[in-house]
Design a protein that fits this description.
2 copies of one chain form a homodimer. Chain A has 406 residues and is α+β, with helices and mostly antiparallel strands. Chain A folds into 2 domains: 196 residues, Ribosomal Protein S5, domain 2 (2-Layer Sandwich), CATH 3.30.230.10; 189 residues, GHMP kinase, C-terminal domain (Alpha-Beta Plaits, 2-Layer Sandwich), CATH 3.30.70. Chain A is 32% helix and 20% strand. Chain A is built from 8 helices and 16 strands. In chain A, strands 8-7-9-6-1-16 form a 6-stranded mixed sheet, with helices on one face. A 4-stranded antiparallel sheet of chain A has the order 2-5-10-11. The first copy, chain A, is globular. Chains A, B: This is Diphosphomevalonate decarboxylase.
Amino acid sequence: MFIATTSAPVNIACIKYWGKRDTKLILPTNSSLSVTLDQDHLRSTTTSRADASFTKDRLWLNGVEEDIKPGGRMATCIAEMKRLRKELVENVDTSAPTLSTLFVHIASYNNFPTAAGLASSASGFAALTASLAALYALPSPPTELSLIARQGSGSACRSLMGGFVAWNAGTLDSGVDSHAVQIAAETHWPDIHALICVVSDTKKGTSSTSGMQRTVETSPLLQHRIKHVVPQRMKTISEAILAKDFDRFAEITMADSNQFHAVCLDTSPPIFYMNDVSRAIIAVIEEYNRVALLPENGGKRKAAYTYDAGPNAVIYAPAAHIKEIISLIAHFFPQQETFKDPFGLFGPNGIGTGSFAAGFNVNVAKTWETGAVKSLIHTKVGDGPRVLGQADSVLGQDGLPKSLQL
Amino acid sequence: MFIATTSAPVNIACIKYWGKRDTKLILPTNSSLSVTLDQDHLRSTTTSRADASFTKDRLWLNGVEEDIKPGGRMATCIAEMKRLRKELVENVDTSAPTLSTLFVHIASYNNFPTAAGLASSASGFAALTASLAALYALPSPPTELSLIARQGSGSACRSLMGGFVAWNAGTLDSGVDSHAVQIAAETHWPDIHALICVVSDTKKGTSSTSGMQRTVETSPLLQHRIKHVVPQRMKTISEAILAKDFDRFAEITMADSNQFHAVCLDTSPPIFYMNDVSRAIIAVIEEYNRVALLPENGGKRKAAYTYDAGPNAVIYAPAAHIKEIISLIAHFFPQQETFKDPFGLFGPNGIGTGSFAAGFNVNVAKTWETGAVKSLIHTKVGDGPRVLGQADSVLGQDGLPKSLQL
């Protein structure tokens, strides 16, 4: 039986991807950089199987079959992987099974609810690409595979590596230089933790696919960001990562999140992803950093917020501060759900009410109603895709997805 | 008795002023352009009196005495006006009373509540300048006086003229070329109406004085706006005004409001003035324009929102559409106060529930709780400062401010 299962991580960008120079190949207008989050907490798990009995390529997402449209993103990724199988394996070793000629069944599950508002396309397309690479026994390194995952969903290319990952925009029309590269492995700076604040939102936001092209077409400020701001920030944040300089990393991460939302606002009609709760979280973290930046407190930032195309905050922080930050957020945004405490920071009494550093101005935000921040997810920097064993397969013997509880 | 009373209007910018190149002289980093609103509805009324019995310069705002700090903005304006009196009147006509040597008492009242969140500094400093100009019988045209008002509050220089007024940034260090000029009088395009939506806000915003300098110091996007975007927009919107092209006027006005808030967001720490209610008003007006832009509906925008340094919306629209817009806003933002209907648009039954154009998507915003928009003020483009008679004086015979009910 030709079958392979992999899991792949979520990534959250510090330097944001917003705008395509080629919408079919998914080539971005600027480079971006992200932190890969730990698959122990958030992951997509995908099983791919090739079999002569299959009559067409099929794909199920969380147990529901997706329509693989000809020329669409899923079809492109599958076709590209079959092409690599043929070129790199079958053409080289004529004894290798000609899997490139067989149809595949692919099943993928996310272990986090869609309602969490986390972009699942990045981990999903990374897991798809990695599972087909394992099925096809490709010799390709992650950077090569990232070219394929990119054509499924741009930011998916960054989920093919662990740690701190850049997606170089590239300049070629073919897109062969628009791939991911690892700036530093998760083992270089394992101290980076992340707190995801899932924010309630009644309003359906603009999809990032259509939103980013509207920005490309209408924002006068975007071109300045692309040409002059991002190149400098890519360089500086890479240096900060290599030097494990959290203060600098935080400064750039927050500035770039805000600039991404600024160019959204500079779009016609304007695009808003953050709401009043998102802004209150910013106010709390800015105040937390203001106190931390006082000379008597060490003079360095202790947290960095960042927001993708939605109201959820992701707060990066060194491990030493994350407990304090969780308490701080839970103070202003009381939690209904019990905090899942994967690192065992809190005792049986839970988060508690927290305490404030001397000089912290509690009036920067009001205490919100319970549920304004629906849940808090604590995780950390993690590794790239993992090849799993048969026991982890999410496709059954019958070639159909297993029934899994999410 | 040497006394003069004037009233001066509020202005609301279409091309926003944000950033100073000289904080003492109040020289801006970019030119701006505004619509002067009708003093019949919103105004500052100021009486200035010079008398040999006065022992110091004194000023009362809404009946409360202000401290005229040496070297401060009020002291600068008063000193500059005395200088002009001496140079342009007393030095020329030696029989003229030497009012420049006398202390003044100045009383100023706004006819709109501070809680309305309207910037009163523009109308206030314009009325102060205009009343001293009347007291001192200065021959100076409004452009000359705008140089003085500008040193009180930058945007006040634009309130010295009616209609559509540009404030040219100028390039000289002395600031003598940084003054207001009238692009078109209110009589050129009297069709422009305005609806002010006063939005509740619990959070105290960043003051514009400190906020704009933080943007100058930290926003990478502001420089692009200053150098490349605003000059083009000043030209284009001036042309639109002269051509009475509301569609173009609206397009630029909304884009520039959004870009101003974008550079605020690009500031470190970020500055937010709009809240979820502000954004919902944007969504409603964008949808209203989307329908209006359909070829079968004429293909032209019918309204333009703009936001200053706060959550209030000002909606500009041709007179023909303003009734529909008031109903639209009142539908999504139910009013507690009875609408003051200065143009008699509605009958005794009030605003009513309104109706929607075919194809209007009512789901672009929810129906908010009563009071989310506290009140609606309907006004229109209006004239520059008016010299009033003794009957309108807000200083009593005793040289102290009259007790007025606001």
